[in-house]
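S.,

Sequence below, as promised.
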Amino acid sequence: MTTATASPTSSPTTTRLGYVDNLRVLLTVLVLAHHSAVTYGALPIWYWTEPSDSPSGIALMLLVIVNQFYFMGFFFLLSGLFAPGSVDRKGPGDFARDRLVRLGVPLVAFWLVARPVLHLPSWPEHQADGESFLHFWFTVGDVGPLWFVEVLLVLSLAYAAFRALRARSTAGSRVADAGEPTAAAVDALSRPVSFRAIAGFVTLLTVATFLWRLVVPAGTYWELGGLPSPAYLPQYVILFVAGLLAARRGWLAGLTVRQGRVALVVALVSVGLALGGTALATAPGASALAQLGAALAETVFAVSMIIALVVLFRERLAGQPAWARFAARNSFAVYVIHPLVLVGVAILLAPVVAPAGVKFLILLALAVPLCWALAHILRRIPGVSRVL
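The prediction came back faster than expected:
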């Protein structure tokens, strides 16, 4: 999710994959929608919540669950897409140091500043229990949505180590500087992706998810690291690796328009099956067969949604007018600061009496432009754009 600049491949002209940037902007907006829905839905797991079990509150809860099936895995796929070229240009060591700065600094800053600020509404309860403010500041809560940055940092460092070991094993031979994928290069290097290959990928991801959830069931929270959805770790890792491979093999360009259309139909059909399968798999005493069915339905929906969106944006939404370039430049900063904005606006909206769905729309409508405006201002501070 970090902003990466494309570098040359076979020619000095650099052209970013505009549709990939646009997808990252869409996913960032979905993150804001996700946490706005948690604020007012029937799943109160956010810093500030006004839970509702009304029809619109239930609908918001379903939106959260459907998003969870695929959108963070999609982020990891897009993040992996830019890693190989970055290592090519910088080398494994500089790439690792760059990621420690670009990902580590926002992670630490969020933990030191944003995390305790977001928990300030709960300070009176801690104070009543005799806790000191200093202890509260450094111990309350976890890294929140920055768990994504935390996991991405681990995966990026692992990839850097892999590239360093591979370079050493080949006696210092250096891979040609292929650079990060440009539109021209990916089109030139694209390889057709067959339906059989997609089915094989779905099978791999389903089996990995099923086996993992026998140990880490859906709904598990890892206090160490503050991971809210460790049940999806196989998806995150496998899609990140898929992004690494797609950068070299042109898989995104190799997807056909027909595959995109089929994927959209499959996604629309499978979303209900995924929701139903998840409900059965998370019920007390759920059988292994129910968990396998849920893993399959979720994976089919997730992969189908990703393929459908990739093809749609590649074919129809690849252009980057000035506003789209602005949104892409600031998307990572928006991700980092959005909890503060959402919670602040939600507190201001607290006196408003309206259905959950209406308040969700108001919060989202206010928070999206405000997040991007504040991110732009923040990145104008000297040195900040180096990490955001």
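The chain has one domain: 18-386.

Coffee later?
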